[in-house]
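The instructor's notes for this session suggest beginning with a concrete chain rather than abstract definitions. Hand out the sequence below and ask the class to guess, before any prediction is shown, which regions might be ordered.
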Amino acid sequence: MLDKIIPWKEYERIRNERIKRIIEIKNDRRIELGERLTLLFENAETVLHQVQEMVYLDKIEDRNELLRTYNIYSTLIPCDGKIKATLYINTENEEDLRKVFRTLKGIYNSVYLRINDKLIHGEPEGGREQGDEFSTVQYLTFDPQGEKGRVEVLVDHPNYKASVTLSDKLVEKLFQESSETCSSYKQ
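After discussion, reveal the predicted structure:
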């Protein structure tokens, strides 16, 4: 997959069209969970785009640095039966952010997939909390353990509740993408 990364100077010429394309892809994968939360189900294309943007923004040319960047983000690719998503905690300004820190502590530990009647906890990536503050971008891994069927995203926090049923089309994509082996993305 690393061979799909375009040198930043070449990417610069096609960046706008690539951004338009990835926006379309993400629109089908983005789930609004009330006013505060957005969940984006990742796939190989969304992650590859993130790596490509980092290469472009940081003007990365060194192969080792490119590999390091890829290895950081490749953990977000769904595989080995696991569904991956990025949780965005939306705030308007610094004051609003402080309110979120006070009222929604641990919200990233409160996101689940309900597949049929089974609840699958979204496991957040470790190390993204610092005392009373936490990152407003969280990476979640859901392990359905082979369970398939109707999927609903649930947020069950003492100060925030939300639920959205996913479309059959998106559910089919998520299960298909998660069936890939992680070794196919290793570099």
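Then share the key points. The first strand starts at residue 30 and ends at 33. The longest helix spans residues 8-27.
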